[in-house]
Amino acid sequence: MPVRNLALASIRFDVPPTAAAALASGFLQDLIADGHLSPDMSYLVCDPNKLRRARQDAMASARDLDQGKHQGWLTTAQSLVYMWTRKHGLTGKRLNNLEILVKYCLQVYFKLYYDIKVHHRLEDGPKHILTQLRVMGSQPRRSKQL
User: Fold this and answer.
1) Residue 146 has pLDDT above 70, yes or no
2) Residue in 91, 113, 103, 92 with CA at minimum distance from that of residue 140
């Protein structure tokens, strides 16, 4: 029997796997005792090791999902800078918008991305917010509107 939802709940509420498994097993025993489940279903007792593996799988899939989101934005920003350095054929307002986006990527996004990658502790969070405010304040008004 899969225990993915139990694993996610134990992660969310910071309950150790052994405690979560004991709670789930106790609840199943209560359901059997009250007649909601038949006594021959006592094999459904939750194994703490199975729950531990399910927690690890859930955390790994969350990390993979998180990595994918940020990598997509990084790839988009890199593509904009690459386009700017090549013959792109843009003129007028579109060229101006591309220039603003490239300057934003070079002056703000890349700097913050790599600062957060290097200094990723919780204590560094306020420093990153202040850096973002400082760097965004130095941007032209036109880039803030885009």
Assistant:
1) no
2) 103
